[in-house]
Amino acid sequence: MPSTTMKTLLILVGKTTDKHFQAGINDYVERIAHYMPFELVTIPELKGTKSLSEEQQKNAEGELILKQLQSSDTVVLLDEHGRELRSIEFARWLEQKRNTARRLVFVIGGPYGFSQAVYGRANEQLSLSKMTFSHQMIRLVFTEQVYRACTIIKGEPYHHE
Q1: Fewer CB within 10 Å: C terminus or N terminus of the chain?
Q2: Quick one: which H or E segment has residue 37?
Q3: Is 12 exposed, middle or buried (0-12, 13-18, 19+ CB in 10 A)?
Q4: What is the DSSP letter of 137?
Q5: Residue 128 exposure: Cα atoms within 13 Å on the Cβ side
Q6: Residues 114-135: pLDDT tens digits?
Q7: Which residues lie closer than 8 Å to 25 by C-beta, 6 or more apart?
Q8: What percent of the chain has pLDDT over 90?
């Protein structure tokens, strides 16, 4: 299991607006906390985006994301073009990160994805599926997968092959 020295963050752009998703996310965040330090950081949604192009919105969100990062962070973007891992592979990957990362930071971007500056800062990109999910739903899916990885690492019966 990741050592207590490694902190794991999940940065989100904008609040989770669906109360059912939020309840599920909160449940998994509480469960994950039994295994490792895990924190959600929500970047406020930009105001007045109607006048911004997609690129301008991504750049503005990107600046806010980059402000949350420390130079030593291992940054992983959840991105449709990222590498796909099975749950067991993700658990092994997460376990390996505890030996190399002081702070492991996952980022779920806004509706248009990430700015080039954020892609440039990222260490890796992971994709949760070839299918497209709302960025609200991905939050729930991802927190469940982190919890699942924790139980796999501990050899607990939550995950079945």
Answers
A1: C
A2: none
A3: buried
A4: H
A5: 20
A6: 999 999 999 999 999 988 888 8
A7: 16, 40, 139, 140, 143
A8: 78
